[in-house]
Structures are given as structure tokens and as C-alpha cells.
Design goal:
This protein has 18 helices and seven strands. The protein is an alpha/beta fold and 493 residues long. It has one domain. The chain has a seven-stranded mixed sheet, with helices on both faces.
Length: 493
Amino acid sequence: MLAYIIIGIYALSLLVIFFYALLQASLAINYLKEKRKKSRTENLNEPILNHPFITIQLPIYNEKYVVERLLDQTLKMNWPKDKIEFQILDDSADETTKILNSKIQNYKAQGFNINLVQRPNREGFKAGALKHGMTFAKGEFIAIFDADFLPDPEFLNRTIPIFNDEKIGVVQTRWEHINREFSLLTKLQAFALDAHFSVEQVGRNCAGHFINFNGTGGVWRRTTIEDAGGWQADTLTEDLDLSYRAQLKNWKFIYREDISSPAELPVAMSALKSQQFRWTKGGAETFKKIAGKLLFSKGIRFTDRLHGLTHLFNSSVFVFVLLLALSSVPLVYFVGKSEVLSIWVDYSAVFFISTIFLMFYYGVSFREKFSNRFFGVLGFFKRFFQYLTIAMGLSYCNTQAVLLGYFGKKTAFIRTPKFNIEQTKSGGWKKNAYLNSKLKFSSLIELLLACYFIFGIVMGIKTAVYGMIPFHSLLSLGFLSVFIFSIIEKKGD
């Protein structure tokens, strides 16, 4: 009986991962079709005849390393001074506020309309800050940038003309990465995010499916926020939540891959984990909140419902990756004892097919440059399997987040520590005051999981069930790598 329960978990996990990979591959096909056409957004770059009033919101919480850089870059925005205001939404509890006050006074003396907006507490976290700021905002359009962003001075001139179509509620731009080449960890994050900000966003948008505002690097029409019910703090991904509520109200979203918004990637494993935890838990919370509305609202195409539901469900794939991994080790034991069950090792080929689909998806967006095509292909294979390994290693942390989201366990909005790229280059990031100095218990679990899959390799050799060995090798390496990254980070304290 136990053998068939394990097989059931294994088969279900394989099936979910297969459909996820298949849908991602379909987005890559959409993307390639779109790239063969002329850019469908070129005609939206019409001249600005009457500059609307713009509010730029900069949500801040304990950002002493990057806040000066943020203000200096954002206030270079090329827009008439009498038609723009800058809101610094500051919830800080450290010296960040003192730094801000000094900078703001200097900019006010230069004639900038810049205001520090503070609250008595952090209720609602980022969503609460944005909602609070809206009560004072004068802008017809609201542009939002997180603390690690360095927006282009022409950002508004390139995005605001798109809103000439009154049905458009949001314009989202592509994130670029100012520290992409800093380390293997940043390279792997850039690899994954490039796929989302090219293939996934374009693939959905060009087909008319729902997409999401990514929390920063985009512009909202004020009336869209208000019509959709405003910023709400009942999920950790307030951006994803509001995006779907707005599109269910028939507002159109435009994604512009050709407009980039540079930002900083986390350079520490603990920072990456906190970011991943927030994104995956928030995704699960938003699925719970929005899935029913998406499923039963009238006037939505079947394909839009399908892609929307799978988009909201994406973070839950980590649960099935971990279930697949955990069930695969006892499966090796049962297969070694029974030839009848050996067929299930053959079904592992479904995982191989899923991997091919995912390689296609990530390959379409691969941006790293090599001297020739041969080395480019080798470079992609190397980067893909490095990423796949780390993604598997993060599956325990992300599964925790997803389950907490589905069970309704409320957790704080843990912001991702920012480092400032110049300090990062000098190696000073390990002294960052916002990093958690303690090694978490989850790191010990990841080490134990690495040992568990090494045991799976040994068992595969002993039972001559060799089909699982490559899978268990990636898993053991992934969990061990995540553990080692965490240890290296703590040695810098």
C-alpha cells in the first residue's frame, strides 16, 4: 500500500510539473511569434501635447545604503517641474529618515516638489504605504520605483504617451540588472528574471492574457487603482493582487520589453531567500483570493482563464518539485524490490521532457554574450543546469512559503536588503546591517536534504536503478549549494 501511495504522489507531481513546463513553452512560442512582427507598441509612442501631472512614489523602509542614489537618479526625470511631484513614502526606523531629510531639503531649495510622507506605524507594509500616499497624491498617473532602482530620465517620456488609449491602466517595463555579473548567484537570478521579463510577460501580453504589474518600474493610471479597489495588504504580493483585480475590471495592461528599468539583484543567499519567500507566499495568497473570481467572472476567454489561473498557481510548483524529490528516493527502493514497479522509473522520462520544455523557455530569453554560437550554446546549457540546481535547492524554503500562504498564516513583509552596487564591488556587502546574522534552522534542513539525496544515489547504485541518479545528483548538489552559500555569508560577520 505504501508503495502505491508513493507512486501516486510521484505521478501527480510529474504531471503538474509537465503541464507547467508545457505552458511556459507555449509562452516562448508566443514570444517568438511576436518578435517576428513589427513591434506592436511602436505606434503608441505619440508626442506628448499636454503633460499630465505625475506622482512618483518611492516606498522606503530602512534603506540607508541606497536611498541617496535613488533620489539623485529619480530626480533627473525629464518632465516639467510644475507637472511632477515626488513622494518619499518612508516607514524607516533607522538613520534612513535623517539622510532623507537632508537630501529633501537640498532638492526643495532647487525647486523640486518633493515630500516626505510618514506614518505612525507600518500597518499594511508596502501596500499600506502606497495606499497612504495615494491620499495625498495629486497625479493623474502614479509611477512607482523601489529603493534599489535607477530609473532612466526619459522613463516618463517613453511610457506616458502609451496612456493616450484611455482603456490602458498600467504600463510595466522590463527590469534590467546593474550587478548581473557580480557573482554566480546574481547571474542565476538574472537568468531567471530575464525569462520572466521577456518571454513570460511578452508571451502573455501579446496573446491578450492577464499579466502583472511587478511592484516597481511601472506606471498606473490613478483611476485604475481606485476602480479596482485600491492597494490592499491581505497578501504579500499587493502588486499581483491589484493587477488581477484591475484586469477583471477590464483595464488593459501594456508590457514594454524595450523600456528597461535598472535595479540591483540580491547578492546574499539570505536576501534571495527572503525575496523568494515573499513572492511565493504572496502568489499562493493571491491565488486563494483571486482564483474564484477569475474562474467565474463573465466575459473572459477560456485561454485567459487558463493562463491566469496557472500564472497565479506558478509559485505552487515548488511544492510539487519537493514532493517529486522526496518521493523519488523510496521509489528507488520499491523499484529495486519489484520488477512490476520498474515501469515508474520509465515514467521519469516525463520529467526529462519537462526539462526540454523549460530549456526552450529559458533559451529564448538567454542574454549572455559569447564569442561564437558554439560557446553560446555551451554557455546556455551550463547556466540552465546551474539555475535548475539552485531552484531545486530553494524548493524547501519556497514550499514552506506556499503552504503558509494557503493555510492563511500571516507573516510580516520582509523587505529584501539592498546593498548599493559600489559597496558590493568592494566586498562590503557582508557587513550590511540589514542582513540576518543568524543561520536559520531551514539551512540545517537543507543540509539534511542534501544527505537524503546522496543516500538516494547510493541506493540507486546498490539496487541497479540508475535512472534516478542524475535527478538525485542535481537535488543533492542544489540543497548543498544553498547551504554552502548561507554558510559563506555568515562567515563574513
